[in-house]
Write a structure and sequence with these properties.
Structural class: mainly alpha
Radius of gyration: 17 Å
Shape: elongated
Distance between the termini: 58 Å
Strand content: under 5%
Oligomer: single chain
Number of helices: 5
């Protein structure tokens, strides 16, 4: 039972990390110091998507689920939890590249606004 709860906590942490990677740049608008946490997280998340690597949290969750008597799953967190929500079954490397590109685009917009506001504040 404890392993199942810890596995669920890993899923929640993993999802929070994915959301942070995707939208964390927007947090910098209100909390500028978040930039120092978000940039490495965004690089890591994008690297995972572009290379097709598996995030270390996925095998951890699978080990916990198996030790709790549940079944693990193949592939990564995004393929198992996120993609079925957004895309039909069957994640391809091309769609992973697209997801990574979307992350980059969203964060470029967020940081463009962040740096523009920062620049405007310094010049007033």
């Amino acid at each position: 039972m404890l392993q199942r709860l810890v596995a669920d906590a890993v899923v929640v942490l993993h999802l929070a990390f994915v959301v942070f990677v995707i939208a964390g740049g927007f947090l910098s608008w209100c909390f500028p110091r978040v930039v120092w946490l978000h940039l490495p997280a965004a690089v890591w998340g994008t690297l995972i998507e572009f290379t097709g690597w598996i995030c270390p949290l996925t095998p951890l969750e699978n080990r916990l689920r198996i030790s709790a008597g549940d079944a693990g799953y193949e592939g990564g967190f995004v393929e198992h939890y996120i993609v079925p929500i957004i895309y039909p079954p069957g994640l391809t490397h091309s769609s992973q590249i697209g997801l990574g590109g979307l992350v980059i685009l969203l964060n470029m917009v967020a940081y463009a606004v962040y740096f523009r506001r920062r620049h405007d504040r310094r010049n007033t």
